[in-house]
Design brief:
42% helix, globular, single chain, alpha/beta, 231 residues, 5-stranded mixed sheet, 9 helices
Amino acid sequence: MRRNGRRSTYRWDQRGCGRSERRGPCSMARAAADLDAVRRHFGLESMVVLGHSWGAQLALRYTLDHPDRVRALVYVSGTGIDPKATWQEEYTRNLRSMLGEHVDRWEELQQRDRVPAEDREFSVLQWSADFADRARALEHAERMATPWLGVNFTCNATIKAEDKRHWGTPELRARCESLQVPTLIVDGVQDIRPRRSVDALERALPRVCRVVLPQASTCPGSMTRTASGRR
């Protein structure tokens, strides 16, 4: 928790990740229930929910399930609501391009069983592609991996498989169209995940404002921005 005047920020390591125990179940529904458990623990009747990357998808899911408990949603660098299959190929090309001279090593590590030190190396290389500042991308990714708490690749794969079944459906779009919670979308033009899926989310939400960072990727680093929105 961080106090800032009369406001408080609550952060936690999601189930199976970071400093949390490596045990399941791992699912979007379980993660959303854990988020609500955090809310109840701190005695919050309602809150502003902010999520980044996959956390943005979780924050959206929670808001759709419990709009009465969310005063506002801040959706940072999420992947939108279109099926992943519609942008996966372009994402993979962008990832390989951003890795540049490191792509061969990344592929080598991806395709074999890794020891923990290699898990860290693989993750640092992959995370580096999420920074627009290529000169310092590896430095930023190294900082994210220090201290190294490991990655729960089994949990990651389980959630990704679930995403294929639930995201990109007409039902999801309809739920977004009826959502009356004020939403702020923040993303970077240089994100390697194509922004058209986030465009679809912006079009679906009735109460939305979007801030676009021209010089930023998945991990925003520039304050230069353009904004548009429907309030």
